[in-house]
Specification:
It contains 13 helices and 6 strands. The chain has 353 residues and is mainly alpha-helical. One of its GO terms (cellular component) is periplasmic space.
Length: 353
């Protein structure tokens, strides 16, 4: 086992609180090889995971392979774009400063890059829920013409021919043959380790050291609980639903969830994003139209547009939006900044190098 993999094993073991003793595995061919298991911990203040880990048990070797694939530009047509190009760790694995995603040749997409965290708790992915399995998630950006623009079969072929991968696949799966299942499961294993649960807010909830909140932050938490948790529920800070939050229709005319279901009731509905690390994941909304949290709250107080599918929480007794005073806005923003997980953003186990 190489030094980098050993270091990764130590880091993940510390996160999970479990030992990392090698476990023998016998694949279909009857050849026994050893992998080092990783136990993904559930934070005490989180609900149960949605992902079935029994179908893709995490190992140090599998996670290391997935991480290598995640940061490899080989998976784009002109070898210039990796998954990590758009999903930048310092920005909560979003794409800082860019309203819309952009890929090879400077092409722009139609939506803002969502952050990546706590994916083990997700059942549907992308702003419109167009992917319903984490294991299938990478296929879309790899093949998307304005992102990585490479046929998935060619991506597998390139990986198979690249000299650095046979040993990595063999270590993770007992075979150096690159298959669709192995490729996708490896990336999933890395993505599953991206757990963000050590913000100052988390420490406050769990009564841990470093969990002190200021009076303004506590006041903001109270306002948030009263006025924001209809959508941003649980300590995941999302209920994973799709809602029309009253944005005007932009030039792209993105109809959101409707493009997937074709149900009229889903027009202009988008997945409720998590607010974890929201201080770092600007710009905001599905099209990145708001650069600051102040602009976001101003939208909810005075910018909500009525439409047939507007979420009922944003039209109560005929009044559009959410009533917030200027003081309450400042307090809510102060609270939202307590959701920044510095350990997550700086964790070298998640970094390219």
């Amino acid at each position: 086992m190489g030094l980098s993999v050993l270091l990764f094993a130590v880091a993940v073991a510390c996160q999970s609180g479990k030992s990392v003793d090698p476990t023998p595995v016998t694949p279909g061919g009857g050849i026994t090889y050893q992998t080092t298991p990783v136990t993904l911990r559930k934070p005490a203040n989180f609900p149960e995971m949605a992902y079935d880990l029994t179908k893709n048990p995490l190992t140090v070797e599998g996670v290391a392979l997935g991480k290598t694939l995640f940061y490899d530009p080989l998976l784009s047509r002109d070898t210039s774009i990796s998954c990590g190009f758009c999903h930048q760790q310092f920005a909560g694995f979003g794409h800082s400063d860019h309203p819309l995603s952009h890929g090879i040749g400077g092409k722009f997409g139609t939506r803002n890059v969502p952050g990546l965290e706590n994916l083990a708790w997700g059942r549907e992915f992308f702003w419109d829920g167009g992917v319903t399995s984490l294991d299938e998630l990478p296929i879309s950006p790899i093949q998307n013409a304005v992102e990585m623009d490479l046929k998935f079969s060619e991506a597998l072929n390139r990986v198979q021919k690249n000299p650095k991968y046979p040993a990595l696949f063999n270590a993770a799966f007992g075979s150096d043959t690159v298959t669709t299942a192995r490729f996708l499961k490896a990336i999933s294993q890395f993505l599953l380790t991206l757990v963000s649960a050590d913000s100052r807010y988390d420490k406050y909830v769990r009564k841990e050291a470093g969990g002190d909140l200021s009076p303004d932050e506590l006041a903001g938490l109270t306002v948030f609980q009263q006025k924001c948790t209809t959508c941003h529920a649980t300590d995941l800070f999302t209920d994973r639903s799709y809602r029309n939050n009253g944005l005007s229709v932009g030039a792209i005319n993105d109809q959101g969830r409707h493009a997937i279901t074709l149900n009229e009731s889903d027009r202009l509905k988008f997945r409720v994003p998590s607010l974890r690390n929201v201080e770092k994941t600007f710009p905001y909304m599905h099209d990145g139209r708001f650069a600051t949290l102040d602009q976001v709250l101003n939208h909810y107080t005075s910018g909500v547009k009525d439409s047939p599918t507007l979420d009922p929480a944003l039209k109560v007794n005929g009044q559009l939006g959410i009533a917030l005073t200027d003081t309450e806005k400042k307090q809510v923003i102060a609270f939202l900044k307590t959701l920044t997980d510095d350990a997550f953003i700086s964790n070298r186990s998640f970094s390219a190098n």
